[in-house]
Design brief:
The chain is α+β, with helices and mostly antiparallel strands. It contains 6 helices and 7 strands; from the N terminus they run βββββααββαααα. Helix content is 37%, strand content 14%. The termini are far apart.
């Protein structure tokens, strides 16, 4: 068994524990089992800091730096996303995207189980690491980690993204800040994330011998198109679900 990160007991509630552990267990047809257990700080949903280690050259900020990156090598020598992925790349770098895998994901108070191609099983894990990494462009997605949903459908992802964003606007309004009820800012967020996905795909292409990680990023990048499409249609696909709210 390979293990990246120590797994801990699921918290009864995020507020009661200093960390939230989400444990991904991959079981392959050849009998190999891989456990990856990222830990998130319960107060900020940032990744818990791992012990210092020598990181590979491809984690340097200047290595295929994203075209829209606001960071500079002088102030941030490492790419925040790349710096949290070396163990994942080492473990899955030689896996093919079409390999079938049984996946169990244990989050606080719930467990998910599915059988899926490797690229589908891996894309949720990559999304978790990316949102919690500290990348300025990915940070707006971090609140969704509070209710992590592996293997989310496009509809579920759009629903959760828009819901999260509108909660943020409510909180802004409560604090006297200008809210964005039209969700125009959410479209901008996903445009920026698209550039991050392109930059990260170039990094992984330089170090991965197989295609599971790259194809997982391709699937993640589809959401950078689907969520803006939902906004463009003014969320009309959701109207029938809210009939009880749309009456005088």
């Amino acid at each position: 068994m390979k293990d990246a990160g120590a797994a801990g007991p699921a918290a009864e509630a995020a507020e009661a524990e200093p960390e939230i552990t989400i444990t991904y267990t991959f079981r392959f047809p050849d009998g190999e089992e891989v456990v990856v257990a990222p830990r998130l700080r319960s107060d900020t949903l940032e990744l818990g800091r791992e012990p210092p280690r020598v990181l590979p050259d491809w984690t340097a900020l200047a290595f295929h730096q994203c075209s829209n990156c606001p960071l500079t090598p002088a102030r941030s020598p490492l790419c925040p996303v790349a710096a949290v992925l070396p163990e994942v790349v080492e473990i899955f770098g030689d896996r093919l995207s079409y390999e079938e895998v049984d996946l169990d994901v244990m989050a606080p108070n719930r467990t998910f189980r599915c059988h899926a191609p490797m690229q589908d099983a891996l894309h949720s894990l990559l999304g978790l690491y990316m949102a919690a990494s500290g990348c300025p462009h990915l940070e707006p997605l971090r609140p969704m980690l509070l209710i992590h949903l592996p293997q989310a459908s496009p509809f579920e992802t759009a629903w959760r993204s828009v819901s999260m964003y509108l909660i943020a606007q409510y909180l802004r309004a409560r604090r006297g800040l200008e809210p964005d009820w039209e969700c125009l800012g959410l479209r901008t967020i996903y445009e920026r994330i698209h550039e991050v996905n392109l930059g990260l795909s170039r990094r992984l292409a330089a170090v991965s011998t197989r295609d599971a990680g790259l194809n997982s990023l391709v699937k993640l990048d589809l959401f950078t198109w689907l969520v803006p499409q939902a906004i463009e249609k003014k969320l009309e696909d959701y109207v029938s679900f809210f009939a009880s709210y749309l009456q005088e």
